[in-house]
């Protein structure tokens, strides 16, 4: 049988255990209410950035190949789209008329040469007779003039032969430089007019230009930072498949007049193209030399939240509570994202755990720039889940 005193002791013990359990539960509840977050303190600093521009590949040289003489195309040695080298034969024009003109010029030259030989013989004969006082000196003088005149005729005929030979040679049309032919080559039978008819268009392939546009303010900023004419010496090129072109380029031409259509300054950069990977008309992204953005505010990329086309960042306010702010992101630099609007120097940004941070007590762990850069990826870790 349990006595009354024993019942009292059991009641006191039960109350004590209940009080202890209640205290432990309260303590565990308080610990559970604190949300662990990783934070990063934003500091304004000059940040190296890479500027990117949409560019188009163009040939450094692109010309229509026109014949120097007129004639009908009777033979083609190439087809449109073919790679050719400087001096390679492309077309042959009908040469019959020019062959006949060359033969006539040579005949005239031979006749003139024979007449000159006869005049020179007469001159020597008169000079001998004049030395013997057999003829008047005036006859010798007249013969010298006739010989000189015939010499001029010979030289004129020689020039006509050279011109006729050039016409014959020009019936073969050659590539002016190494490059690639367009597919606008004319068919056999086309009558080509000297200096007018384009037989084919040829474009150089190595090197090539990449043409892109920059704003006036960007141009002024870059030239002030690096000195006029010295920026753009180490350009990179990102192709449409995401790969980086293996050769660096450099700026060779800047159109200081504003482009009337886009209001931008046109820039041309030259890139080596030994493998002919870059072809005219190809689109690529030009990545400029490293520039410096003054007093930039950069945050870890994984701290930026995107919803319905808008960007947000969670910061810790003066009361130690999480507060969401809409921001305007700029350029990504490594694992950071430069914020151009909506953020202030000295703000503490929640990097991980912002999903559960609103209205909760925060257990903060401050990350350094080195922590962010050495992290394995830019995704949210387990504290944000």
UniProtKB/TrEMBL annotation:
It is found in: Cell envelope. Pfam families: Beta-barrel_RND, BSH_RND, RND-MFP_C. Residues 62-199 form the Multidrug resistance protein MdtA-like barrel-sandwich hybrid domain. Residues 295-356 form the Multidrug resistance protein MdtA-like C-terminal permuted SH3 domain. It comes from the Bacteria. Residues 207-286 form the Multidrug resistance protein MdtA-like beta-barrel domain. InterPro entries: MdtA-like_b-barrel (IPR058626), MdtA-like_BSH (IPR058625), MdtA-like_C (IPR058627), RND_pump_MFP (IPR006143). NCBIfam families: RND_mfp. Belongs to the membrane fusion protein (MFP) (TC 8.A.1) family. This is Efflux RND transporter periplasmic adaptor subunit. It comes from Megasphaera hexanoica.
